[in-house]
Recover the amino acids of this structure.
């Protein structure tokens, strides 16, 4: 035990010898948390929309008014020349155009089904789809209100009119604040970056300068070496997690509905998995640079396949299968459920089991590879 | 002009690159793998959303509505239940993402009054998809009531919306997310390769002390910088071409603009990335800190703040300013504009200038810090 303690002490000293490291580990992530917490929402806002009204009637103005009154769109009045619209979309001055035909108001009154044209810049297919959804919502509401007005003028119509009005609520996050959802996600990503990369770099560095061989010839067993390399970073990971969470709770007011001991248990399991990955990476590469590239690759894959940005259900089945091997997937799920819903182990045990199994496997694999090299 | 002192430095750097075939392999394999996974995996548009339906009305009208929901490709009805209190259970056990509650007096109010409310409850844990789900559900209900009300051409004809909406996606008509993702991956990889490789190679010389040896030699500091930059500029460029050709051939990402303009812009983008790497290397003393800083500092911002996933316009204004100093932001506009829209210099010059400007700014800062250190 004492031997491991010495190793741990040495490792911590090495990390903190460079005061820059401390800043990189603690200050940079906090700045990112601050910035990204505000930045990200897959929701769209203030998209530039060209409004082109060939009608100019009271009805068409009412419709356009509705577009300018939402936060989703920022309206840009356009000169109503068809070439102009296309040119501005092409130049990226706007991402959407709404074209209201001539006689729109009259056609609507006389129920001749006028046709509205929507042009969308589909480069970002995802946000284009979201924008179209909002656009449809506004149009549908407009139609519904219009029908209602017609009914109030001609009560005879009311028998044929059957109007459903959806009343929407969101539970656990009634205002649908993205921050509540983003902060747990960003925390888990930062935690993965730091624990995985620090461990793999710490080992590979010793490999590169040859001190790992010196360590190997000491009476320490490889298990002890691994433990000595893991414990300090697990410790750092925990502190990082604590600082980031405090920050999230105090600054962004993210609620934590679940229990803190459960959170600690689950975070601990996750940190071990990510450390194990770091050690594993270090056993398959020779230089710090290679370790960095490999970690980068893992990180980007983990982030994009975690369900953080893109719902996992939407992925093709073979990609969904891959995501089962992604520890971040489980951890983000855990954090969200625990923070917002207050889920406990009775609900989160499958995630815990998966993480634990993954962590154990990767540790054994890493230890075996580590061992073989020394033999 | 390649003078006699510059050439050996460049040659030396190339030897460094060649000596590490594993890094090179990772550098070429990684993008291919990433494109494969993300080209297929990323799709924000929700499909098969798991919903629960609680039908308290149990009338033909309500069954009709449920029928519409189950016929829609967007929804998968995973639970039908009769007790609204069970909704909570659906969410805590993560069976459904949203629930539709049809009140007992649904059919009666549908006949009698112009508005019959219906409950839409979303699990707000994932705030972003919750918004989408609510939108989808509301749109289904409203359009259903509009069509069934027969408000279209003549009240008696039944069916048909009061307004026909024709939406057209420009520049990506089939809404293929690969077309949007592949250029993004090019941007992400190039900044990573540029910034990481340069900062690490300079930091390595600092760490091992060879930087001082070079500096006391007759070689001028700017020659060191150029000598370090040129090989990675070439390497980054080769990788960029490789990814572009692969994405073009495999994912059939269109190439509507000119290859030569795109490749020219790539050179300047790689230059900007290198400038960032230089700047990072002046801030740190060891490889490890250089790696941590360039990874933590470039990965998340380039993914989240650049418009790679989320439109910049939707971010809060202060962050939009932050996103302007991220080189990837400008490059994404350029590469997507050229490939998907066929933009030319006329549309792209502001982005090009901004991107190059950011690069020059980084270089200037780096040189300033470098000089300071020498004194």
């Amino acid at each position: 035990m004492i031997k491991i303690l010495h190793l741990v002490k040495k490792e911590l000293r090495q990390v903190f010898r460079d005061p820059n490291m401390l800043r990189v580990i603690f200050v940079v992530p906090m700045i990112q948390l601050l910035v990204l917490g505000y930045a990200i929402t897959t929701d769209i806002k203030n998209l530039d929309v060209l409004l082109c009204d060939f009608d100019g009637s009271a009805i068409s103005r009412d419709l356009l008014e509705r577009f300018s009154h939402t936060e989703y769109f920022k309206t840009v009045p356009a000169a109503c020349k068809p070439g102009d619209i296309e040119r501005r979309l092409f130049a990226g001055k706007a991402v959407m155009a709404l074209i209201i035909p001539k006689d729109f108001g009259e056609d609507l009154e006389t129920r001749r089904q006028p046709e509205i044209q929507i042009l969308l810049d589909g480069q970002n297919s995802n946000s284009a789809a979201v924008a179209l959804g909002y656009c449809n919502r506004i149009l549908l509401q407009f139609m519904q209100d219009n029908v209602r007005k017609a009914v109030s003028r001609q009560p005879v119509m009311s028998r044929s009119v059957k109007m459903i009005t959806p009343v929407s609520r969101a539970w656990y996050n009634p205002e649908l604040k993205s921050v509540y959802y983003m902060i747990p996600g960003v925390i888990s990503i930062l935690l993965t970056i730091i624990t995985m990369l620090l461990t793999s770099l710490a080992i590979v560095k010793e490999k590169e300068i040859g001190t790992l061989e010196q360590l190997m010839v000491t009476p320490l067993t490889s298990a002890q070496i691994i433990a000595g390399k893991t414990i300090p970073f697990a410790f750092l990971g925990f502190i990082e997690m604590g600082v980031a969470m405090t920050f999230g709770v105090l600054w962004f007011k993210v609620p934590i509905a679940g229990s803190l001991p459960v959170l600690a248990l689950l975070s601990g399991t996750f940190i071990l998995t990510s450390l194990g990955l770091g050690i594993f990476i270090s056993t398959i590469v020779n230089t710090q640079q290679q370790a960095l590239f490999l970690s980068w690759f893992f990180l980007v894959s983990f982030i994009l396949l975690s369900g953080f940005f893109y719902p996992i259900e939407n992925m093709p089945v073979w990609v969904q299968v891959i995501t089962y091997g992604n520890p971040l997937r489980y951890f983000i799920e855990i954090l969200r459920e625990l923070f917002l819903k207050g889920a406990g182990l009775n609900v989160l045990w499958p995630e815990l089991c998966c993480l634990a199994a993954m962590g154990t496997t990767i540790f054994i694999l890493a230890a075996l590879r580590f061992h073989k090299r020394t033999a | 002009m390649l003078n006699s002192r510059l050439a050996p430095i460049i040659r030396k750097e190339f030897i460094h690159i060649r000596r590490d075939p594993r890094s090179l392999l990772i550098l070429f394999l990684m993008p291919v793998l990433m494109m494969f996974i993300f080209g297929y995996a990323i799709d924000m548009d929700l499909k098969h959303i798991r919903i629960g339906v609680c039908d308290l009305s149990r009338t033909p009208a309500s069954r009709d509505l449920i029928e519409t929901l189950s016929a829609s490709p967007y929804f998968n009805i995973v639970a039908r239940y009769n007790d609204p209190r069970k909704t909570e259970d659906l969410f805590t056990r993560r069976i459904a993402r949203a629930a539709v509650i049809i009140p007992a007096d649904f059919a009666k109010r549908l006949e009698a009054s112009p508005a019959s409310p219906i409950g839409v409850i979303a699990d707000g844990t994932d705030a972003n998809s919750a918004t989408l789900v609510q939108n989808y559900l509301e749109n289904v209900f409203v359009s259903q009531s509009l069509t069934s009300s027969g408000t279209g051409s003549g009240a008696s004809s039944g069916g048909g919306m009061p307004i026909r909406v024709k939406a057209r996606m420009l520049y990506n008509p089939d809404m293929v997310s690969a077309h949007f993702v592949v250029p993004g991956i090019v941007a992400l990889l190039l900044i990573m390769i540029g910034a990481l490789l340069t900062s690490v190679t300079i930091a390595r010389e600092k760490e091992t002390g060879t930087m001082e040896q070079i500096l006391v030699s007759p070689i001028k500091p700017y020659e060191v910088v150029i000598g370090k930059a040129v090989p990675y500029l070439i390497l980054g460029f080769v990788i960029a071409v490789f990814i572009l050709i692969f994405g073009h051939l495999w994912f059939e990402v269109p190439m509507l603009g000119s290859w030569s303009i795109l490749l020219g812009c790539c050179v300047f983008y790689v230059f900007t990335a290198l400038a960032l790497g230089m700047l990072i290397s002046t801030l740190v003393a060891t490889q490890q800190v250089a790696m941590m800083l360039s990874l933590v500092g470039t990965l998340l911002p380039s993914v989240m703040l650049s418009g790679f996933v989320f439109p910049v316009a939707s971010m809060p204004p202060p962050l939009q300013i932050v996103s302007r100093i991220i080189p990837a932001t400008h490059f994404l506009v350029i590469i997507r504009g050229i490939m998907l829209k066929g933009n030319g210099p006329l549309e792209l010059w502001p982005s090009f200038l901004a991107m190059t400007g950011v690069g020059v700014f980084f270089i200037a800062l780096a040189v300033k810090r470098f000089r300071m250190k020498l004194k």
Notes: Chain A has two domains: 2-40+178-374, 47-159. Chain A is about 65% helix and 10% strand. The two ends of chain A are 23 Å apart (CA to CA). Residues 47-159 of chain A form a domain with the abc type-2 transporter like fold fold (CATH 3.40.1710.10).
